[in-house]
Amino acid sequence: MFNLDQRLQNDTILIGRLPLCQVLLMNDKRYPWVILVPAHNDVYEYYHLSEEDQMQLMKESSMVSQKMADHFSAKSMNIAALGNLVPQLHQHHICRYVDDPAWPGPVWGHSAAIKYSADELEIRVKELQGLLQQHFIEDLEAEDDAENVAYW
Prior knowledge:
- A five-stranded antiparallel beta sheet has the order 1-2-3-5-4.
- It has a single domain, classed as HIT family, subunit A (2-Layer Sandwich).
- It contains three helices and five strands.
- The two termini are 22 Å apart.
- The chain is α+β, with helices and mostly antiparallel strands.
- The model is unreliable at 141-152 (pLDDT under 50).
């Protein structure tokens, strides 16, 4: 069974499951911000993934980035995998705008997150689920072995 890092559990909301990754919404309403987490335990760096999973992560990241950029009319997409505070491999996908609070610098360390209200959160989760739904697998509790994953 896959175990998500406690800090990611505290800061995000699960919105769906792609063939390799859990898709999480960062609870910061200032930015459309999704995090992809490969659903394998004890993976801290890209090179801990099999070559096949490395390619799948790239496919999932590219798809999420393009859909988010188009849907949210992002000026730029920031995609990053920082392991300084959360060692579990995870990849941020953040829509950026020239008028966002941290522009043009990074969002990390700029200021405290502004959490979604319950209503805002429900709307954003449904919006992202609608955007990515066709790529989600059915079983969010799928085991983390490749035999249970259908790659596209």
